[in-house]
From TrEMBL:
SUPFAM superfamilies: Thiolase-like. It holds the Pfam family Chal_sti_synt_N. Keywords: Transferase. It comes from Fodinibius salsisoli. InterPro entries: Chalcone/stilbene_synt_C, Chalcone/stilbene_synt_N, Polyketide_synthase_type-III, Thiolase-like. This is Type III polyketide synthase. Signal peptide: none annotated. It comes from the Bacteria. Belongs to the thiolase-like superfamily. Chalcone/stilbene synthases family.
Length: 368
């Protein structure tokens, strides 16, 4: 039985900063050596990012007590416990806001129709988990089934969509609400290590929700066709998360774009074979913008035209890398496009710890 993404809603924190402003603050607070300041300037200047959203409001003149960037010029390093407490405080209302917006923007599914909730996050934890909070605040049925995917990283929206597809196949009247929410900026590290500087230059905060159902769409939708997953050999240490005493520490090797390029063809070939198509048959691409270099390598590896990655580059420029939520921002850009695209085939890609490459084929469908 076919399953469809009926709509996608996105939410970001109110506060945002321009990338060039953040570059200068990082040079001031973290760049203790000339070489570090030079590296910071270069990384930020070549990031492809114009601005990023964050729950951190350190630079407002009369705001709450600062989290990281102190007015005396020092950089605080909050404990993991303090960061997670801030996650709970900031994330709970964003979970609810995103879920409510997703349901309200759906023309055919209301809150009484929701049968399953899948929540996704790798930047904080609390229990009862976010699905419980959504049910409580939106007054959903207490029998709504809840599932949480945690600590999977930037590709986690794909397992969530696969779960939703399976639920719809097993239960034809299922209406699955997925919400991905990440507050990556809570895990800034006071470190001049290149991995940490790269992470600080790209990660941002944001959330996205979608509803997956086997119902026939009443407006343009994305049909879930096929999924594929693969793990690149001997790359586990090049992209990983670990929980330290001062937040979650991201390992993001500068080799990641090259590793993606060298493994991409093998990763997506099973998907193409299952659908009996070639790369030339792919009309549009939704690539997780983990960074400018990653998009550049995908562009080169698959010999794409600039417009085929336009949605991914736009999301990178305006939002940065919001981990699991980011690919949904890209898919929303494509879904909301005004161009004629009935039966358009989209290849979606995301990359995360492992190094794991997740891919999906989706077909754009318009109601009859």
């Amino acid at each position: 039985m076919a399953a469809y993404i009926h709509n996608i809603a996105t939410v970001v924190p109110e506060r945002s900063y321009r990338q060039d402003f953040l570059r200068e603050q990082m040079k001031k607070y973290i760049g203790q050596r000339d070489i570090s300041r030079h590296i910071i300037h270069r990384i930020y200047a070549k990031s492809g990012i114009k601005k990023r959203h964050t729950v951190i409001d350190d630079f407002r003149a009369n705001g709450d007590p600062r989290v990281f960037f102190q007015q005396d010029g020092s950089l605080s390093t909050p404990s993991t416990g303090k960061r997670n407490q801030l996650y709970i405080e900031k994330a709970k209302p964003l979970w609810v806001k995103t879920a409510r917006k997703t349901i309200e923007e759906n023309p055919s599914v209301n809150k009484t129709d929701i049968t399953h909730i899948i929540t996704v996050s790798c930047t904080g934890f609390f229990a009862p988990e976010p699905g419980f909070e959504i049910i409580k605040e939106l007054n959903l049925s207490s029998s709504t089934e809840r599932f949480h995917l945690g600590f999977m990283g930037c590709f986690a929206a794909f397992p969530a969509m696969k779960m939703a597809q399976s639920f719809c196949a097993a239960q034809p009247d299922a209406n699955v609400l997925i919400v991905c929410l990440e507050l990556c900026t809570l895990h800034l590290q006071n470190s001049e290590a290149t991995d940490h500087l790269i992470s600080a230059s790209v990660f941002a905060d944001g959330a996205a929700g979608l509803i997956v159902s086997a119902r026939q769409p009443v407006k343009r939708a994305l049909k879930l066709e096929h999924f594929s997953t693969t793990i690149a050999e001997e790359t586990e240490e090049d992209m990983a998360w670990t929980i330290g005493d001062t937040g979650f520490e991201m390992v993001l090797s500068s080799y990641v774009p090259d590793l993606i390029k060298s493994n991409l063809s093998d990763a997506i070939q099973p998907l193409l074979e299952a659908y009996h198509i070639s790369l030339a048959d792919i009309n549009r691409w939704a690539v997780h913008p983990g960074g400018r270099a990653i998009l550049d390598k995908v562009h080169q590896s698959c010999n794409l035209q600039p417009e085929q990655l336009a949605a991914s580059r736009k999301v990178l420029a305006n939002y940065g890398n919001m981990s699991s939520a980011t690919i949904l921002f890209v898919l929303k850009e494509l879904l909301d496009s005004t161009e004629e695209n009935n039966k358009t085939t989209t290849l979606a890609l995301a990359f995360g710890p492992g190094l794991t490459i997740e891919s999906a084929l989706l077909t754009t469908t318009d109601p009859a």
